[in-house]
Amino acid sequence: MSPRVIGRALTLARHAAAAHIAGYLALSVLGGLAPLAVAWLGKLVIDRLAGPVRWLDMVGLTVALAGAGVAAAVVPPAVRYVRAESDRRVNLLAVEHLYASVDRFVGLRRFEDPAFLDRLQIARASGVNSPGMVVDGGLGVLRSLLTVVGFAGALLVLGPGVTAAVLLSAAPALAAEIALSRRRAAVVAEVGQAERREMFYSTLLTSPQAAKELRLFGAGPYLWRRMLAEIRTIDGAHRRIDRRELVLQGGLAVLGAAVAGALLLWTVRAAAAGALTIGDVALVVAAVGSVQAALAGLVTEIVAVHQAALLFEHYVRVVDAGPDLPVRRTPLPVAPLRRGVEFRDVWFRYAPDQPWVLRGVDLVLPADGCTAVVGLNGAGKTTLVKLLCRLYDPTRGAVLWDGVDLRDLDPAQLRRRIRAVFQDAVPYDLTARENIAIGDLTALEHPGRIEAAARRAGVHDVLDRLPNGYDTLLTRLFFSEDDRADPSTGVVLSGGQWQRLAIARGLLLEQPDLLVLDEPSSALDAEAEHEVHTRLREHRQGRASLLISHRLGVLREADLIVVLADGRIAERGTHDELLARDDAYARLFHLQASGYRTALPEQVA
Ligand SMILES: Nc1ncnc2c1ncn2[C@@H]1O[C@H](COP(=O)(O)OP(=O)(O)OP(=O)(O)O)[C@@H](O)[C@H]1O
């Protein structure tokens, strides 16, 4: 249990809910001392009853006893409230820090690293609750300590032997808790992976995206059986610890009760012999129960703090991860593109143990021209785009923006000058307006800009006809507050409509310096594709654009076409030049063209 991690958790908690935690602390002190006050006042009342009763004294004592009783009754619900409120505040701040940190990652590498994703998932699921758990556990320890120390102190009045005997009576419970809590912590760590896999299966089995394929291919049972296997593994681990707990706690409870019983007998005998008062007997009885419970609670709380610290360590490591790509302390501002973007002898692989994806690519995307990249699946086209947007850095070589290495530039400014439509653009479960505005959120204030982008992508009419127009939620997963009156207004778009929406998102910025279109029209019908490409051509005029498509027909008007093969540029030239070379491009083009030529008469027939 690292004190540094616990310190971080407490600092975060203090920033989020200082006043609530102070109140929580005060109530914990009160809660820790209340049982002692009740027991002590009870002893005094009983002792007074045994002798000549002095009424004024008795009234004072009973009022104090009633007050302590009220405090003891009021403290637990008050603690629950303050604890819940401080937990909520701390959790909110922890979530804010986590997501702000994740958002600061410049590149993609961490999102594709299973070890980091695992840590991120733990941080997100449990780490954000840890500071609250550390506070709860810490104050729980304080409460228990006050109870134990308070009773030990009070019992000293009766002699050190009684104090030692009461503490000893709690020893079996204490030993049991220590043994069990170690085992419990080990079980939490042991089943963590299985729990995450189970979560994955359960999400997949109920996701609308997977529902179609799972039904059609009948793959559901295969997956839910694997999910059940994970649950069985988790249950098995918990069952083992539960059984151990049953045996250990059962046995030790008997032992603890026997020790307590022996102590009680001794106290009663001492009282009968006149060595102790009846009040002393009552105090010992109360002390045995309270000290046993407090010592067991003490161990539980220490273990809870330990576990919370372990989970919070994952959170801290995500939040402290720093930039995933090196960013200069004072990055250079990104000027408008004048000459072009250059790939200079770019080599790239996703990891040192993986094969090279790009092997010495030299390519210039001129500031006022359209460059098209062609290549078979896996040739490295999208990887080129990722390097261009600085989602990764080249392993060797450099990408230069008007001669300046992208690594020297401000990544946020760079991205404001680039717009891209990806083949795997994300369909957000948001309104149509928000889905487009993701491309430039300032457009939310300017509905005209969103509509203009939708018109350019040829999707305005579709969106305009939706039940709530641009404000229609594009999901059936849930409904928005505005749709409460009619939760059925959410709609599901077709694949091509989504793609047009993604194109609108990419075209929202009217003057990007560089427009990247990575398979932007693969889901469109032929007519729509032609229409979209005509509009895109207009939009690209006079600025740099990079076009990637497997449909070579849409690339033929590019100023330069390059063929990527085995991570190298195998051919480059205009459409006519490449056809004249009669090599890979010409072969691919004729293959596609012949497909259309032979397919058409058959279709007509
Ligand atoms: N995140 C990644 N981690 C490891 N390897 C990757 C990753 N992304 C892509 N690759 C690999 O890099 C190679 C190039 O992939 P890339 O997506 O750039 O190809 P592409 O030319 O765009 O293919 P397609 O035409 O199928 O879209 C492929 O072999 C792929 O398996």
TrEMBL record:
Residues 341-591 form the ABC transporter domain. One of its GO terms (molecular function) is ATP binding. SMART domains: AAA (SM00382). InterPro entries: AAA+_ATPase, ABC1_TM_dom, ABC1_TM_sf, ABC_transporter-like_ATP-bd, ABC_transporter-like_CS, P-loop_NTPase, Type_1_exporter. It is a multi-pass membrane protein. Residues 25-307 form the ABC transmembrane type-1 domain. The chain crosses the membrane at residues 28-46, 58-79, 148-174, 246-268. It holds the Pfam family ABC_tran. SUPFAM superfamilies: ABC transporter transmembrane region, P-loop containing nucleoside triphosphate hydrolases. This is ABC transporter ATP-binding protein. GO terms for cellular component: plasma membrane. Coiled coil: none annotated. It is found in: Cell membrane. The lineage of its organism: Bacteria, Bacillati, Actinomycetota, Actinomycetes, Micromonosporales. Keywords: ATP-binding, Membrane, Nucleotide-binding, Transmembrane, Transmembrane helix.
